[in-house]
Amino acid sequence: MNLKDLKRKTLDKYTPYTYGEQPDPKQNWVKLNTNENPHPPPASVLTDIKSAVNEKLRLYPDPTCKELRKLLTNVFFPEYRNFISPQNFLVANGSDEILDVLFKSFVDPGDKVVVFNPSYGMYPVLAEIYGGEVVTIDLDENFKITDEAYSASGKIMIICSPNNPTGNSTPNNVIAKICDKFDGLVLVDEAYSTFNKISAVELLEKYKNLAVMQTFSKAYAFASQRIGYMIASKEIIKYMTGIKLPYNVTYLSQQSAIAVLNNILDYQPLIENIINERDRLSKILRGFEIKVYKSDSNFILIEFPDASNAMKIFWELKDKKILVRKYNKKGLYQFLRISVGTKEQNDKFLHEFAQLAKKYLKSRT
Asked: Which domains does the chain have, with CATH numbers?
């Protein structure tokens, strides 16, 4: 057998997604590179999950996440009950599975998939896997969507808002204008929307070519449980439900999300803490000779005068067991992204960053 002869020819030039480094948690790293919640889930949530560890573990999980979809409707979107019901939700094994099912459901080889640059790297990766033609629209110098988006055409357009890695949000009036003009499906990825409390969900009443994707990974501290969901028209959800794999969300993942929703008020102090720490970090970092971009998320993007400074500071922070995110992509070499940690983690990062700034950056006068 020759593996080369068996591989799909369309993937000859395929470039896999580069995921964030996951160091050994026993080695006491300050991990600010993958936008996880730095706080554990509230005690009330963990108690509920522990009580769910019972004889049901031997059974297959609910393939449609019926109880979870009902709670999502009632807890997160009660004001939209006139157009959002449990039948408007698809729950999956993280947002990445939502994306995978979306591409399986709608993208034929050669179909155009419109993405923005810079943005989340999985969008073009999945387009390549399914044989789609990636159409890339560059964001402007402030990382905002340009008028080019209004004339784009394709099967799917994906907008990340707040955008990863830039942290800024796309206003709903821009999303609405795109939905008016785009001839395919518009997906808004709102993995970080809890941190700016703005959502395109309200537009779903009018736009049937719109879908909104959210997750429990970031604000709700359950990245390990892989729980994502999409809200769209009943027709889209019914079709995609028939495409997804059966039993795709484990029993414990469903119970984890249910526990979050049943104790949702306990998350408010954690979310407010992250927002406050984000703003504190941003203010302090603006005192250095770097550009700090305004963030609506749980991370901050900073730009250095040149790429060499960014790389030197990245590697020396890593030597101190502090991980941030660097980018090996044209146009992003001079950037680093810092996830917001606990106050103690952020203070350690700031202390080490200040020492490195003296070494590599000019003083701001």
From this structure: 19-41+267-360 (3.90.1150.10), 43-264 (3.40.640.10)
